[in-house]
């Protein structure tokens, strides 16, 4: 279908596609999502699209927020939040789950609900649980509104470090050694579950990385150097997710690659290298978002390695059935092998984040990136594909 102007009933003036930029959300990555949405609102072509910003509060309320990107920035090392931006402390935006009705309605206790018009595409600028994990994508499928990025399955796979590894392995991508402790393992027999980790360490050596299976931005992850640190690391990971994953530490360089869907299919960006961060035990939240990414673009790799990692990134995109975009993160081991660490279906997306920087270097600037993502979403409809 034409994406410039949506199909019109005869006699109606043509209108621009309406993009709802949804941001904030219930995850611990709320603040960075607001910052990113500010950048998207600034970059999106207003001559081509109408824009409706919708902020989700940390409690999960869909609030109507002002279209004021300048208020959506980090100030005094504090990330902004949707409650500060919401036009009211009570009103809620509702997207109909009737696929025949794309009308968005705003209602506030004691007032007559107000129609906000139709939405043609949703851009979920959300990270982590209830945003990047397939739950929101499920709601949008029910609503029949096309959306930017991965669908239900790919989102869920990308959010779960266990299933992600299982999917990659079954598609022939190499992953590092790991062991999973499910909540039931822990509840049934805690000593046995702990022994499973100790046995794993005996086989693969220390340090270990103890992680919540479904989190992000390094929340709840501990690098454990010796057995005495294990209990605290497990407890910390379980605070974020009852399912935890324990990985052997991989030695090598961290290389990542962006994948973006073009008209003719997914293409990989030039790769980047994330140097070991001295001030942080590993690449953590501060290093990644607040202090801005200090990745090297393009990664200093041989031509052969560059071709290889770009190929693997597209393979990872396809293995998880991604759409729109993904950032694929690898370790280049001392044996010269690319081991996949993870994919992010909604990677850090501020203009200084790695994904936009890699595309910038590849020749796609931030406004074009935003446009390509919206266009890719408009090209498909919801439902099986
Ligand atoms: N198995 C591992 N070996 C070595 N470093 C790791 C390992 N797992 C994670 N790290 C380090 O921790 C960072 C965050 O881990 P990651 O699994 O990417 O979690 P998140 O989903 O929070 O980004 C990685 O970028 C890397 O620097
Ligand atoms: Mg990561």
Brief description of this entry?
The chain has 385 residues and is of the alpha+beta class. It has helices at 30-43, 82-85, 135-143, 152-159, 161-170, 183-188, 190-204, 230-240, 285-290, 303-319, 354-362, 366-379; strands spanning 18-24, 50-56, 62-64, 92-95, 103-107, 114-118, 121-125, 178-181, 208-212, 222-224, 244-248, 252-262, 265-268, 272-274, 325-333, 338-344. The protein binds adenosine-5'-diphosphate and magnesium ion.
Strand content: 15-25%
**What's the assembly state of these chains?**
single chain
User: Low-confidence segments, ≥5 residues, pLDDT <50?
Assistant: 1-9
- Number of E strands: 16
The SSE order reads: EHEEHEEEEHHHEHHEEHEEEEHHEEHH
Averaged pLDDT, please?
91
CA radius of gyration is 21 Å
Roughly how many Å apart are the termini? 16 Å
> Per the principal axes of the C-alpha atoms, what is the gross shape?
globular
Bound molecules: adenosine-5'-diphosphate, magnesium ion
SS summary, helix count: 12
**Helical amount:** 25-40%
- Major beta-sheet overview: 5 strands, antiparallel
Helix/strand structural class:
alpha+beta
3D architecture notes:
This protein is α+β, with helices and mostly antiparallel strands. Helices cover 32% and strands 23% of the residues. The strands form four sheets. Strands 12, 13, 14, 15 and 16 form a five-stranded antiparallel beta sheet that branches. Strands 3-2-1-7 form a four-stranded mixed beta sheet. Strands 8-11-9-10 form a four-stranded antiparallel beta sheet. The longest helix is centred in the last third of the chain and has 17 residues, at 303-319. The chain is globular. Residues 1-9 have low confidence and may be disordered. The structure holds adenosine-5'-diphosphate and magnesium ion. Magnesium ion (MG) is lined by residues 329, 342.
């Amino acid at each position: 279908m034409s994406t410039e102007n949506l199909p019109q009933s005869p006699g109606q003036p043509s209108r621009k596609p309406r993009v709802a930029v949804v941001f904030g959300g219930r995850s611990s990555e709320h603040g960075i999502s607001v910052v990113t949405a500010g950048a998207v609102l600034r970059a999106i072509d207003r001559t081509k699209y109408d824009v409706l910003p919708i902020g989700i509060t940390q409690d999960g309320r869909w609030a109507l927020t002002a279209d004021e990107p300048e208020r959506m920035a980090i100030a005094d090392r504090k990330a902004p939040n949707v409650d500060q931006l919401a036009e009211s402390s009570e009103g809620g935006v509702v997207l109909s789950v009737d696929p025949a009705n794309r009308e968005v309605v705003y209602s506030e206790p004691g007032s007559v609900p107000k129609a906000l018009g139709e939405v043609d595409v949703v851009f979920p600028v959300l990270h982590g649980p209830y945003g990047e994990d397939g739950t929101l994508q499920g709601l949008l499928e029910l609503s029949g509104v096309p959306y930017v990025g991965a669908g239900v399955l790919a989102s869920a796979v990308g959010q779960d470090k266990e299933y992600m590894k299982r999917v990659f392995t079954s598609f022939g991508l190499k992953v590092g050694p790991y062991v999973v402790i499910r909540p039931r393992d822990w509840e049934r027999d805690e000593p046995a579950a702990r022994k499973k980790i100790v046995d794993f360490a005996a086989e693969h050596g220390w340090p270990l990385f103890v992680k919540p299976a479904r989190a992000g931005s390094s929340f709840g992850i501990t690098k454990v150097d010796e057995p005495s640190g294990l209990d605290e690391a497990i407890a910390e990971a379980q605070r974020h997710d009852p399912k935890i994953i324990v990985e052997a530490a991989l030695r090598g360089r961290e290389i990542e690659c962006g994948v973006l869907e073009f008209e003719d299919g997914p293409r990989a960006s030039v790769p980047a290298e994330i140097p070991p961060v001295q001030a942080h035990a590993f690449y953590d939240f501060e290093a990644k978002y607040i202090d801005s990414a200090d990745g090297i673009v393009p990664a200093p790799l041989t031509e052969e390695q560059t071709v290889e990692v770009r190929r693997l990134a597209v393979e990872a995109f396809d293995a998880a059935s991604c759409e729109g975009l993904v950032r694929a993160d690898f370790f280049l081991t001392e044996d010269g092998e690319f081991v996949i660490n993870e994919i992010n279906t909604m990677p850090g997306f501020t203009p200084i984040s790695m994904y936009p920087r890699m595309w910038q270097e590849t020749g796609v600037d931030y406004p074009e990136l935003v446009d390509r993502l919206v266009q890719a979403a408009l090209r498909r409809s919801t439902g099986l594909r």
